[in-house]
Amino acid sequence: MSEHILFLTGKLAEKQLQQILQKMQPEFTYNVHQIGVKVAALMTADMIARRLKDTFNADRIIIPGRCRGDIEALSKTLSIPVERGPDELKDLPLYFGKQALHIDLSHYAVKIFAEIVDAPNLPVDEVVQRAYYYQSNGANIIDIGCLPDTPFAHMEDIIQTLKQEGFQVSIDSLATEDLLRGAKAGADYMLSLHESTLWVADEVDAIPIIIPERHTDIISLDKAIAVLQAKNKAFIVDPILDPIHFGFTESVVRYHAVRQKHPDIEMMLGVGNITELTHADTAGMNAILMGICSELNIRHILATEVSQHASRAIKEADMARRIMYAAKENNTLPKHINADLMALHETSPFPYQLAEIKEFAEQVKDPSYRIQISQEGVHIYNRDGLYSAIDPFDLYPKLQVEGDAGHAFYLGVELARAETAWQLGKRFNQDQALNWGCAAKTSEPTVDLHTFKPAGTTFKKT
Description:
Blueprint: E1 4-9, H1 11-24, E2 29-34, H2 45-51, E3 60-63, H3 71-78, E4 82-84, H4 92-101, E5 111-116, H5 124-136, E6 141-145, H6 155-164, E7 168-172, H7 176-184, E8 189-193, H8 199-203, E9 207-210, H9 218-230, E10 236-237, H10 248-261, E11 266-270, H11 272-275, H12 282-296, E12 300-303, H13 313-329, H14 354-363, E13 370-374, E14 377-382, E15 385-389, H15 396-399, H16 405-424
Parallel strand pairs: 1-2, 1-3, 3-4, 5-6, 5-12, 6-7, 7-8, 8-9, 9-10, 10-11, 11-12
Antiparallel strand pairs: 13-14, 14-15
């Protein structure tokens, strides 16, 4: 027997919801019921509990995605499972598709070493503060970078303090004296040893990261691997990823060759040579780099956030490793898993066509302005009419808000957001900041749908 679902909605969205469900031709049966509120986004759990008198023998109830309130309590009150659907009705088919996939992003295979490159020049408390920042963005190990010809008298204090705070730590230097000091102070890893400096690994317990004796010298890397394997010591191999036009493609081939020759060793990819040294958005770079890690079973990366354009690189790497892990586990492409790496674009930026927006506008009977976008441009409407433009300045003379500075300011902000969304191909939802994924912080806090956010300026008179 097929599942029977009750969809709750508002007056303005009822017809559209019916049309979408009809086009879906779902396997389940359903009822659509509007509970007497004009705008579905203003529906609340308490309102549903008061107004819903008939559950239509449903097995579960789907409510609008922006519906506020405690739906667990509502489920108990109605004795039926209640869940939030997507924010946009047009995403309903995708919503049911995602339910079938059950994508879990809590797992990953790659550990992130986050390097503090200028640690010798920073006081202990600032290093600790930065370590917590990196950890909050997904870092697993805090890498303490040493600088050539720069005294580092407080190295031990930094490492011991970080260890006391519960961090895993690596010491990063080509100078054996630095590595010995760092490891003896409690560092868990050492970056980097090569064939001539392997003796350091015999002196301390820290796990060494091994690099070629000379750049691209894979033979020396093989020798170092053989020595450490003979001693049954743990180690990680880094064949070195080179910047674009300075050996990048060849270095990727080198990683592949090392993996083919040594299928079971632990490996590291230093992603900073790409994210830091390429002036392009780092979210896409991290997606590709984590894809390489996933295919070659590389389970450690060294990441940095030195350049301003790479200021979200660790957070992006964290999301990328989770997406790639989920894609690999589900034997699927890394598509439709999570949108946090799509900072500038979206898979479906324009959920509504102009004809549908015109239909919405005809139903509005109040003076509050609604703003939407379609492939044709930016659209604003109320009971007095629908106006469309590509440049929001063209709309101002038609809005009649010259005597209302507050309203004019509000509409200016929202129309600017709408224009940006239209230009880039992003979703626009009135009264909400644009979603930039993990590439930027927004001024709005994470939405808690258990709380009741005040209605936006547009809806206050609805």
